[in-house]
Amino acid sequence: MEHSSTSLPQYADLAPQKTRRLSALTWIPTLYFAQGLPFFVVMTISVLMYKQLGVPNEEITRWTGALGFAWVFKPLWSPLLEAYDSKKKIVVFFQAVAAAALAACALLIQTPGFFLTTIACMAVLALASATHDIACDGLYIASLDKTAQAQYSGWLGAFFNGAKLVAVGGMPVLAGMLEGMIGVKAAWTAIFALLAGGMALLALYHSFALPDTRTRQAGATAESGVPLLEILSSFFSKRGVWLMIAFIILFRLGEGQIATVSQLFLLDKTEAGGLGLKTEQLGMIYGVAGTITFILGSIAGGYFAAALGLKRALLPLIIAMNLPNLAFWYLASAQPQSQIIITAALAVEMFGFGFGFVGLMLYMMQVVAPGPYPTAHYALATGVMQLGLSLSRIISGDIQKWLGYQHFFLWALLAAIPVIALSFFLDLPEKE
Fold it and tell me: I need a labelling partner for 280 at 20 to 30 A (CA). Which of 78, 117, 179, 231 fits?
């Protein structure tokens, strides 16, 4: 969709050519794995660590919840990155910062006042990760044409959530094994040292593996920067911008509510309507099997969207993301005790989630981001998405308490109706 303003300066592509498709898979998987790993450390691993170290639940939820605002408000500093033509340098720098924050956290776990000091490290990690997201997505958009963006979108989603496989599946299992051998604090020190080493290796690899595709705002310099008001003005002057914002927020309204409640449901006692799974069972079923099927769904969704184009593929992607939530309604109704049945149901749900989520990523890349500041506009879109996801999670607990698990999952299905209806009114690009 073309931008309505012609007075704003346009990008000048300084790269001699777009990244060759044959070389794209040498950096896309590792780049988006590096994007996902700090995010899941902050959102998931930190919660498990603090619980095992005896921190009260209310302190865990209060402080780790506050860390999530880094991803909501990251668009506010995204204009500072627009002025730098090399997103590669920014990506590598903040991967190194993330490695340093993880290493500091590993050392501080052993200190008496570990909670406040490690929370400070987590704050640095969250800010570095959120800033890295902006440059990472900007590099992806600048290095690939729209067809390639669609083709590889499944891969970036897959490896972002491959980090989830490591964080939610592998790390808790390893930590549990180490706790019995060397103690809780030493175990989590080892886990964070391992994570720090992994991020450092990724930063080193990306220092030579990433394409240095350069785009510079005409007339902008690293010293002058790009005015925030100009970025916001160009974003909110897009034709149909409020429709875009509504669509992004509503896209995950159903899935966002299920995201948190589903884990509570799987762990809750059967007499309370849950399935009564143990923590290690949840890690294997949801963290490992669920993430693998999500990755497969993401890859399939990317190729599906590339074949049909966003305009024809969007509605099937929305349906694919929400209809498999029937699996949770079935589990809540039947309360099966067979791990095979539970795993199969979750596999269907996670495959559909991965398949359908591609639609939102491509919508933000191909409809919202284009214009004079594509990196900043995409960051604004992802901030809106994170805000919508946070709002969905905030209301989900109260709704579940009121309806009970079984009726809650039916409600989550109904929550997909507004975004389905809205999809018929969107201005979408035709397949190239």
Answer: 117
Beta strand 215-217 with 11-13 is: antiparallel
- Residue 373 has φ and ψ, to the nearest 5°, of -130, 70
Q: Residue 274: which region, alpha, beta or left (left: phi > 0; alpha: psi -120 to 50)?
A: beta
Question: Rounded to whole angstroms, how far apart are CA atoms 90 and 23?
Answer: 21
Report mean pLDDT in 10-residue bins for the chain, 432 residues: 32 41 78 93 82 70 76 75 76 95 96 92 94 86 78 78 81 80 90 95 93 58 56 85 92 81 75 76 76 86 88 90 89 90 90 91 87 81 82 74 87 91 82 53
> Using an 8 Å Cβ cutoff, are 136 and 144 in contact?
no
Closest CA to 128 of 157, 163, 101, 156: 101
Task: Kindly give, in sequence order, each residue whose CB lies less than 8 Å from that of residue 215, ignoring residues fewer than 6 positions away.
Answer: 11, 12, 13, 14, 15, 85, 138, 142
Is residue 35 within 8 Å of 95, Cβ to Cβ? Answer: no
pTM equals 0.66
Q: Cα–Cα distances in Å, from 385 out to 50, 116, 183, 268, 363?
A: 27, 29, 39, 29, 12
